[in-house]
Amino acid sequence: MAERHYTRQLATIISIDAVGFSRLMGIDDERAVAAFEERRDIITDSCGAFGGRTFGVAGDSIMAEFGTPIEALRAAFDFQDRIMALNALAAEEMRMPFRAGINTGDVIVREGRLYGDDVNIAARLQEFAPHDGLAISETTWHHVKDKTAAVFTDLGEFMLKNIALPVRVLIAGRGGNGAAMAASLAAIPAAPGHYKPLPKGPPAIAVLPFHGNGSEPDIGYMADGVAEDIIYGLSNTRWLSVIAKGSSFQFRDDGLGTRLIGNALGARYIVSGTLTGLGGQIRLNASLTDTSNGRLVWSQRFDRDLVDIFSLRDQIGSEIVSILDKEVDRAEQVRTFQVPWESLETWQLVRRGRWHMNRRTRKDTEIALEFFDKAYQEDPNSSAVLNELAWWYFWRAWLRFGDSDDLDKVEAFARKALLMDSLDARPHAYLGAADIMRGLPASAAEHLAEAIHINPSFAFARSAMGSARLLLGDAAGAIPFFLDTERLSPFDLYRFHNLGELAAAYCFVEDWPAAIAVADRSLNLSPGYFYARFLKIGALIRSGRRDEAERELAIFATRHPDFSEQRIRWIPFADAAKNNFLIANFDQAKTIA
């Protein structure tokens, strides 16, 4: 086997990356490639002028090698200044900024290629750099700090992927850009002297100020208002730690990168968005990013007519809060599978249990209880654990048509949770749900009103309030609560139940087409849900659609051979005439079968 020859040497490496290259390729791939090649030539020229050489060009990334750190820094400033000037002349949507990372250390050289941890560190540092910005390692900084007028901002130490030891990261800037960058970075809370992992416990989420664009007046004010409403709403979920507005609103520069901002704020998740107003309409683009890996967890566009600004803010803000609560919960459920069972913290045991509950099988619900019980043993005073146990027993009571022992446990756990945290909406909602199943809709409505007051984005509480109104005989008043639930939680796991309740409300106001359509939507989500099909059959016969009613009745008989009208009589309407009304509709269909 031929001997491989290589040498070792001290070198300074620049890792350079085009920002937003994939986005530009999606707009116009030929123009994007031409723009990249034009800027790559500038980079090659600047590096050569300062004694460096480029190597390892791959996709939209470039590497360069220098003999001295100061020349590498000067080259980086030079090509970034030239690229910024070129971008200023380009159409805004086709501008292509570059960011760079510089590290100095020992490298292996073989056939013109460079290898080693110090090459990899340069590539990792580039990820911390702002758009048109430059991140350097402490090693490089020691060589250049007294030889340049550059401004340096210390971000602290970070553990970099596949690098054994922490690396101190600094942002470098010069001239007008450097001063502006230093001013922007000065707002960042002081970075720790040594790398510290995120604190134990539930993850923190930060909501950055939303950007406002467009010709509509006060659009910037409204953008900030929506972000403020989201901060307030998320704080009411209670299980998430929310970074205060005074800290997160310092980050109006979206070029700093989510990883840098997340580390500075101690937040695992970042919420950002842009609000555009034009011609009496607004469009909000919102997104959720996991700062630990830079991945986009969720994004959505909201289009609305611009009418009453304050009601519009409330509507959009509450929708986003409800979605974010579930998206972060989902992401954290998945994350628990990266942690050994014996190492799970109490809050992680809760998330793992929720994952099993969401699968809705008998075996999984049993496993979920095991996780909740273990969490309870570790921390019997945790409101998060108490709430999950209350929910688990409520779910089983619902399956058992109001098992009194299970409802007693719901009440016990919910009341203890309230002692731990009186501003948590969940215990109020579970007490209300238990009262519904006990046939006490008026008492339930009081608990649920309190839950909605505390957390207006709590979809379960709104759906349960609709059910309480329905049981009290106010079908017309119940419908808005069910519709609000649809708006707040359009992908809810238990949406089939909310739609079933909405179908019942439409039956009582004798809007038969709406009842049929909504029952169909419920059955699309859960074909085995007997109540939705029961209501649909009655609505079909009342609409004169006999053939369809007969077909649905045949399906019902096959799926639910043990059905008796006692299931409907069990529903605790305040007026038994409501039960009789639904049963009569169904019986009318049976007479034609």
Shape designation: elongated
According to DSSP, the number of beta strands is 14
Largest sheet: 8 strands, mixed
- Find the structural class using helix and strand composition: alpha/beta
Cα(first) to Cα(last) distance is 85 Å
> What share of residues are in beta strands?
15-25%
Helix and strand layout, with pairings?
Layout: E1 7-18, H1 21-27, H2 29-49, E2 53-58, E3 61-66, H3 69-89, E4 98-110, E5 113-115, H4 117-126, E6 134-137, H5 138-144, E7 151-158, E8 167-173, H6 175-186, E9 204-207, E10 211-214, H7 219-235, E11 241-242, H8 245-248, H9 258-265, E12 269-278, E13 281-290, E14 295-305, H10 309-335, H11 346-357, H12 362-378, H13 383-399, H14 404-420, H15 425-437, H16 441-454, H17 459-471, H18 475-488, H19 495-508, H20 512-525, H21 530-542, H22 546-559, H23 566-569, H24 576-592
Parallel strand pairs: 4-6, 9-11, 9-12, 10-12
Antiparallel strand pairs: 1-3, 1-4, 2-3, 4-5, 6-8, 7-8, 12-13, 13-14
Salient structural properties:
single chain; 593 residues; alpha/beta; eight-stranded mixed β-sheet; six-stranded mixed β-sheet; 24 helices; 17% strand
